[in-house]
Every structure is written in C-alpha cells, then in structure tokens.
Amino acid sequence: MATERIETLLRSAFPDANELRVEDRTGGGDHFQVTVASSRFAGLTLLDQHRLVNEALAEPLRDGTIHELRIKTREAQG
Amino acid sequence: MSELSDRIKDVIEREPVALFMKGTPQFVMCGNSDRALRALREAGAPVTAVDILPDPAIRHELSALSGWPTIPQVFVGGELVGGADIVQELAETGELAGILEQRLGGGYRDDAEERVVDVLVPAQR
C-alpha cells in the first residue's frame, strides 16, 4: 500500500524522527498528509525542510503514487 | 532551453508575485491552489497567476526550473517561497507579509491587482 511505502521512505530519510505520520486524507490512497519532526530540520528554512521531504518522496511523486501531498515539518527537540 | 521554459522563467523573474496553479483565480481547480491563493490575497499580494493545466509541459518545465515537484508554486521577487503548506503557514505566522515587504518594498499592496498570464503564447509587451 502507498501509505506504508511513503512511511518506509520517510523513515529511512529521517531515522531519528520522533514523530512521523502518514495519513491518507481521502481514503483513496493518493492524497496524503505527512508530518515529520526531525533534528535534520534544525536551522533550515521551511522551504528547505519541505525540500528534504519532497526529496525523500521523489519517486512516489514522480510515478503518480502521490497525487496530492501536504507536508507539516517540525524541528525535533533534542 | 525551450521557448516554454524561457517564458516560465520570464514570468518568475518579471512578476512581483507569481502563482503557478491548477485553474485560475476566478476558477480554481484544486484545493491546494486555493489555499495558496487565499493566503496571498490575505497578505494583499499582487498575484500573477499561471494556469498549469492546459499543457502538462508547463508543469514539467516549471518543476525542472524550480526543483519543486508539486503544484501550486509561489514565487516572490523571482525566488521560490514554496507550495500551499508553506505559504499558508507563513501567512498564519505573519511572515508572508514580511517576505513580500522585504522583496517587493513596503508599497506592494498598492498595485495588488490579480492577473492571469498564459505561458503557451509569446508574452504581450
């Protein structure tokens, strides 16, 4: 399932994440909300934080698995 | 570089605020484009919109230029600000107005007129 694939990709990109959630927003398996709290975001602008998430999900974004993606990033506290 | 790519680049560089979206401000075709448009309107931004739906090549060339995979994409003063989530978050914290002011000058609200440009035809100058 797409949800698990996305979660696996995010987990390997952000192994330290203390919050990592993937929600299927519509139940249709292609509109997702992802939430990631990671120390990798430290000192980065929102734009660069979202870039990291987009990079981690480049393949499902390119192949159409993800039709719509909402991203919420947070800098993990120590 | 294709002609289309050049025209997209031209819009990004020339327009104070460029919004690449699905549909037009009068007929928005996607919830995320709508969120970005609303955030920009609330901040009083002079929005120049480009509908990416008429030709898949627009989105392809745009993402190649910006390195950003999804739609919408918002540029202020020639620089990518982000997609719907970022623009909405920046609007909520009040930072969006700061970015607009910093990149466009304090009077940016004065000519806050919405325009639509078509990148599939040569620019009317």
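Residues 3-14 of chain B form the longest helix (12 residues).
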